[in-house]
Design a protein that fits this description.
This protein is mainly beta and 468 residues long. The protein is 9% helix and 46% strand. Strands 3, 4, 5, 6 and 7 form a five-stranded antiparallel beta sheet that branches. A five-stranded antiparallel beta sheet has the order 8-9-10-13-12. A five-stranded mixed beta sheet has the order 35-36-32-31-39, with no helix packed on it. The relative contact order is 0.09.
């Protein structure tokens, strides 16, 4: 076993014990050789990024994953071709088990990754592709891996953080001769793609494939906050002012979100308001700043220890705490009195709750693609469709067949994501009679200006009362 392999295995063994949407790309070895010959010789590794924590922090089931050390920049004289690497980088175990070995290739400027899936080595090593900055990216169906070079201080580089339902992610660092190799890996679960990786460098936030994400900087009381919003993924992120450079990535529920931190003597809050809302910080003992980000108002407040920053919003004429609005959007389905709430579990069930009444819907049965469930609840009727993301304010439900049927416009539309990565749509309707409940046959969308909805074409609909 080489000295490099011993160094890598020792560090990775510790990291593996600690923890666990980019389309897959396939590049042939011929393409890699051709591409490698065009890369400028003597390429030097410059700005680097910090690695991810193995486990991360969960917020409504979404992962945040920074390493607990300051990122650094690799010396200019260090390149991948200078290293002699061959050894296990990480392992991931879920529905599919992955193992990866990183190795440098003599005469090549970029490393390659040897990957095994469920104990079987893939026919060809994965070729490196250039990512943001000096990150090298490896992709195969169901797995995304990023690696980069970094070393001891002195210049701070960027940051990285996984966003999305990062149920099978890992990150860490291996050291060889004073040069640190950072890595982050994410595997898809079920039908879900690997979670997206956000790379934060000075003045910009991009995804792993280089897509720019709108971001802004706000400073309050000499505390600097970086906020970004990825509307395509429904995620937003915040890097707070703490020295650890922590990045928190969260879902934007109803186009809104809020997060807080800081010491008791100087607590802070960062809030993303919905586009239609009027938002303001509470008064007394709070310094704040506000700016617009992709049509949303972003507010930052820092307290002085005598008051905790709080954001209030006015939506449809009703004034409420933004935290209450976000919580309701995250947990409620938009129908019922009291409101029906939902929760998705890794065991493969969607739970619906209203007071003491509860019901579990199976991903594989009631919520399989092409099927829907009608749930009569107190104060309305709920239609749940798995595997379908309905456009907001453009959804309707078909009641009855043939000429005697009608389309009923949904009073509320909420699209969320199950833990297996598939979307689920909650459609709210007024209370329907038992006869009408049994006559629900389809759902559909009403594109702008259209007279008749376009049916989805459901293959099965069943009525499931809560607590039945």
């Amino acid at each position: 076993m080489t000295e490099a392999r011993e160094d890598i295995d020792e560090v990775v063994a510790l990291l593996d014990r600690a923890g666990g949407h980019t389309p897959p790309l396939h590049v042939s070895r011929v393409d890699v050789v051709r591409r490698g010959s065009t890369i400028r010789r003597g390429r030097r590794i410059a700005a680097a990024v910090s690695a991810l924590a193995v486990a991360g922090v969960l917020w409504f089931g979404w992962a945040v994953a920074p390493l607990g050390e300051d990122p650094t920049t690799a010396p200019a004289e260090v390149t991948w071709s200078d290293l002699d690497l061959e050894g296990r980088l990480f392992g991931l175990s879920g529905e599919t088990s992955w193992n990866a070995e990183l190795r440098t290739v003599e005469g090549e400027e970029q490393p390659e990754l040897v990957v095994s899936r469920d104990g079987e080595v893939l026919p060809e090593p994965l070729a490196a592709q250039d990512g943001p900055g000096d990150i090298q990216v490896f992709r195969t169906d169901g797995l995304t891996v990023a690696v980069w070079l970094r070393a001891e201080p002195e210049e701070q580089g960027g940051q990285v953080a996984w966003g999305g339902q990062c149920l099978l992610c890992t990150g860490g660092a291996a050291e060889r001769g004073g040069t640190r190799i950072g890595y982050a890996a994410s595997a898809g679960v079920g039908s879900a793609d690997p979670a997206e990786l956000y790379v934060m460098t000075e003045g910009a936030v991009t995804t792993l494939d280089g897509r720019d994400v709108p971001s802004l900087d706000l400073a309050v009381e000499e505390r600097r906050f970086v906020v970004f919003l990825d509307e395509r993924a429904g995620l937003w992120g915040v890097r707070g002012p703490e020295d650890d450079g922590r990045i928190e990535v969260m879902p934007a529920h109803g186009g809104a979100g809020t997060t807080s931190g800081g010491e008791p003597s100087a607590p802070w809050v960062v809030s993303l308001a919905p586009t239609e809302a009027e938002a303001a910080l509470g008064e007394g003992g709070v310094e704040g700043a506000s700016a617009e980000l992709a049509g949303h108002q972003v507010l930052v407040g820092v307290g002085d220890g005598t008051a905790t920053p709080e954001v209030k919003v006015v939506i449809d004429g009703e004034r409420q705490a933004l935290t209450s609005y976000v919580q309701a959007q995250a947990t409620e389905v938009g129908v019922g009195e009291p409101p029906v709430t939902w929760r998705s579990t890794a065991a493969g069930f969607l739970w619906l709750d209203q007071g003491p009444s509860t019901e579990a819907l199976s991903f594989e049965e009631e919520l399989s693609d092409g099927r829907a469930v009608v749930v009569p609840v107190t104060g309305g009727t709920l239609v749940v469709v798995g595997g379908w993301a309905a456009p907001a304010e453009e959804a309707a439900v078909r009641i009855g067949d043939g000429a005697g049927g009608r389309w009923e416009a949904a009073t509320s539309v909420r699209v969320r994501e199950l833990v297996d990565g598939r979307p689920v749509t909650f459609l709210g309707l007024p209370e329907l009679s038992p006869t009408e409940q049994a006559q629900v046959t389809d759902v559909g969308t009403v594109p702008g200006g259209a007279r008749d909805p376009e049916p989805l074409g459901l293959t099965g609909v069943q009525v499931v009362p809560l607590g039945d």
